[in-house]
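Posting for a labmate who doesn't have an account.
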Amino acid sequence: MSTKYNYKEIEKKWRARWEKDPVNPTNTDKPKYYCLDMFPYPSGNGLHVGHWRGYVLSDVVSRYKILQGYEILHPMGWDAFGLPAENYAIKTGTHPSAATQNSISNIKRQVNEIAAVYDWDREINTTDPNYYKWTQWIFIQMFKNGLAYEKEMPLNWCPNCKCVLANEEATNGVCDRCGSQVTKKNLRQWMLKITKYAERLLNDLDKLDWPSKVKKMQSDWIGKSYGAEIDFPVDGTDKSIKVYTTRPDTLYGATFMVLAPEHAVIKEITAPEYKDAMEKYVYDASTKSNVSRMTDKEKTGVFTGAYGINPLNGAKTPIWVSDYVLADYGTGAIMCVPAHDDRDFEFAKKFDLPIIQVISKDGKESELTEAYTESGIMINSGEFNGMKSEDAKAKVPDYMEEKGFGKKTVNYKLRDWVFSRQRYWGEPIPLIHCEKCGIVPVPDKDLPVILPNVESYKPTDTGESPLAAIEDWVNVKCPCCGGPAKRETNTMPQWAGSSWYFLRYCDNHNDKELASKEALKKWMPVDMYVGGIEHAVLHLLYARFYTKFLHDIGVVDFDEPFKRLFNQGMITKDGAKMSKNKGNVVSPDETVDAYGCDALRMYELFIGPPELDSEWDDNGIDGVYRYLNKVWKFVDEYKDKIIDTTPELERAKHKMIYEITNRLEALTLNTVVSGFMEFTNKLIAVAKEAGGVDQSSLDTLAILLSPFAPHIAEEIWEVVGHSESVFRSTWPTYDESKLKEDTINIAVQLNGKVRANITVAADADKDTVLTAAKEALGSKITGTIVKEIYVPGRICNIVAK
């Protein structure tokens, strides 16, 4: 054993050994554990140290489970279709397929530097036709089951990326990818009816061991609400407008109505004198994203000149149009109660509309300077006056149904998924348009529909996919009638391949089905899923939807894909997310070269609580590197000084097992690393006093360290006498009886001030402790002892006067 910790030689040696003899045996009869990272999209910028954090965490868990006797599935692959890869290709002038492959090669090299126990035989790539054959197959099953349908609709459009964005991709009215202002564009789209699964997606959150924050984000996105639909007749016509409200108890306070700019009735009811202003307003609203409409602080609107009739009191209610009402939420029309809703209050104040209070805290009307949104007593509400507003919420809907002008309803904010993109770099949608037969799916025998290799892959200004210009690809025979037909030219969104990839890892070489039932039964669901919280709504919701659908058609026998979810925090630099544009990226390549993989792995964990964002410190890794050198020197010094164990060595060993195990189970991995430092120091001190160390303590140190710093742990394991890998051993267990100290230190106070310390047997009784305390104080005690206090195991206080 070299006296110097030569990490480069050690890491090279053990990687070569693991390559020949993997530490995770496959096809065993051991219990399974499926630990999965959210697979990366292959960015041309490669990985930085922030990316390492989640990968190291999942590898620690995987190696720990190997030592606990599990056969693990810990795969890696590439989410390579979609906007990020295509935009990078356009920027660099390289074809997306070539740019993607180059990026994968570079990132795979960087990922291998982590020394994770990835099973590369299970590697997948969403752009591989053997993979996306099954992505297309799933879509066809959705089409056959009525979940995929075509619709022309105004959609979020990024003029820079030249593609449709889902609402989730247009946060705050800007494109998540490029930051451009999002507009609206009417386009033919394929939709997936995720709303059919809204209730199950909501209720089944209770099954999951996920962070409460993520579950709340999904619950809020699904947005279940209880309310009522109420019919307001339009004055002077035979028409009526159905509004949706979550507050039917405030119907007496409705002083105006607001329609979404897309509402079909607007043209029919708008008075001539308001027509020009209305047309301009409706057009302007069509250029805004739903998100920007909801977040705009300035309320805008146009009066139609028409009035609705409040069905409860017969009051004429002016009908306005405003873009803060969305066509696809509820009915696209709302009744407005400005006294009790903040947005309605702002609107009423701006346009000088009446405000009628119908709920008050004490049952008395007051001058309102803002909307009163608390519960209280009903006022100005006819037969409901004096009733508690909470009671009225239940009573008014019953009354409306009884009178026939409304009904109780349940509504969801969740909208159907806009599934198609007008881009090149995506899975072709496997449908064929035939004038005679309509839209028909590509037969299974003809899958996959291969994405053609083209010279011009840049998006078009028309909104059509570049595929539409490839006539020899577009023009085909109808698989039903044999007549002339055309392929669907839209492609799938990036989320398509990532919504089911966790299934393919189980059986990635299967060319007969997406995965065999035997493989799925063995491995699914995923036991631990690790990734960033930025995927809380999009990817995780879509993956749950796909899984529930595949369960319904009998492909899988479970309906939730991920049992446990862990969201690692970001690693920031100079107070900001690492970004090439900000110039604050720290490359793992240089760090590994300077300190070694094991040091970087441990620093990634030591930097802070893994679920929180942490700031990178260029000097912080020095401490971890010094610790590994200390361990190396300790083993080098004591490997030939093996002695029989002592009570002190046993206690130090079992305390280390207890603390490391419990901290690892809780995934407080930063405290695991600090625990190693603490207990190694203790072990060194005890060994120094004893003149040696027992074999079991050295073995235990190597095993406990191995999930975190596998190279140095393997070397230590070999040095102390073992021929097989440390990962062929078993995670140690602790003996609670050996955690107890034989002796304890007690602080001794005289009149409340510490004046001495004593060491007594851990089980010493009160009299023994007090006698020792008085002996230790000796002549310091002056006067008469009037009180003797002992807090067991902690402190003595002698009071003398």
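Reply:
Got it, the structure tokens are right above this. The mean pLDDT is 93.
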